[in-house]
Amino acid sequence: MAPLEGITGYIYRNAHSAYLGKLDKYFTPFLSPHGEKENLTHRERNDVAPEHNMGLNVVPQILTNKSSQFIRVAKYLQDLGYKEVNLNLGCPSGTVVSKNKGSGFLAKPEELQQFLTEIFDGLDMRISIKTRIGMTDTSEFAELLDIFEQFPLEELIIHPRLRQEFYTGNPHREVFHEAVVRSTKKLCYNGDLFLKEHLDTFAKEEPSVEQVMLGRGVLRNPGLLQLAQEGTMPDKALIKEFHDRLYNDYRDAMPGDKPTLFKMKELWFYMGTLFTGWDEGYAKQIRKCNRLSDYEQIVKQIFRDGEYTDKI
Ligand SMILES: Cc1cc2nc3c(=O)[nH]c(=O)nc-3n(C[C@H](O)[C@H](O)[C@H](O)COP(=O)(O)O)c2cc1C
After folding, report:
1. Helices (H), the chain
2. Residue 222 CA to ligand 1 centre (angstroms)
3. What does the pLDDT look like over 98-117, one tens digit per residue?
4. If you measure from the C-alpha of residue 100 to the centroid of ligand 1, how many angstroms do you get, rounded to a whole number?
5. Is the dihedral of CA 167, 108, 130, 8 positive or negative?
6. φ, ψ (nearest 5 deg) of residue 61
């Protein structure tokens, strides 16, 4: 499961895995340390608290370009029992990139190499990397691959888009393939695997790659795992149970109506299209509702009257 900031936190991970199958690994949305101590926010500490992640294989992701910060947070996580941490080299957001973090770090290959040397020297834990293929040009990737090759990575997760592409256009599958040919690392592919058909095609095209990371595909179709493994869609009732668990847990964890509504609207933004009637009215109704009581009414109607289907 991909890290999706604001979405795949511990509440989502627990609700999804309780009803719709466990994924092999869950990467947390990035933890962004600041200052000199481990200095994570309350929300970040909550997300990695062992009691919030029972029975799940969770890998915390760290976003920084300072090796001392990375090491400090990784040791804090190791003390909590984590065996692996992941470095974010993909975040395309302007405020992150302008500080040479996330995908912005890819524009500083020498500093990146130094950083990796220091964190691998300073830590006795598994370290994986999630990366884009460059900032502005796919030709940047060859040098980055040479750098990654020098370190004993647990795995190299590649989202084959450039920073400047954000999430638009098609992933550069030919650039990913370059890594398949050249890299000796355990590779994981990430990007635009939304349908069972996409997964099947990927497996045919890259038979040597055994790992894929799923993000928006699972948000869009929470039953994607079952669909991929068994060829069937989970019953609508199960999606309703998943929804209700998520809704109740958000309500318990956050004060007032607004934050829960915000989270649920975001969920429906991805998941809604699988329900008949979504484009004909439900989408607007969900988007416009301001009270939890109204929200509950609409959701009741969607689950009662809408069919839940996906391309099989
Ligand atoms: C709303 C949102 C939040 C994201 N947050 C993170 C994050 O915290 N860390 C990260 O490495 N990638 C993050 N990503 C990127 C995803 O992990 C993933 O690489 C991207 O969505 C492509 O995969 P997909 O097509 O399967 O969704 C985020 C993407 C979205 C859309």
Report:
1. 10-20, 42-48, 67-79, 94-97, 109-122, 141-149, 173-182, 196-205, 216-220, 224-230, 236-253, 257-271, 283-288, 292-305
2. 16
3. 999 999 999 999 999 999 99
4. 18
5. negative
6. -105, 140
What are residue 67's phi and psi, to 5 degrees?
Answer: -60, -35
User: Atom 12 (ligand 1): residue with closest C-alpha?
Assistant: 3
Nearest in space to 271 (alpha carbons), one of 203, 217, 206: 217
At what angle are helices 257-271 and 292-305 packed, to 10 degrees? 20
The token pair at 256 is 């007032």
Q: Ligand 1 centre and the CA of 2: distance in Å?
A: 6
- Indicate the top mutation candidate among 96, 106, 159 to test ligand 1's pocket, ranked by most ligand atoms within 8 A of CB: 159
Q: Which two tokens stand for residue 90?
A: 């993909």
CA-nearest residue for atom 26, ligand 1, is: 215
Q: Which two tokens stand for residue 260?
A: 């829960």
pLDDT in tens, 59-95: 999 999 999 999 999 999 999 999 999 999 999 999 9
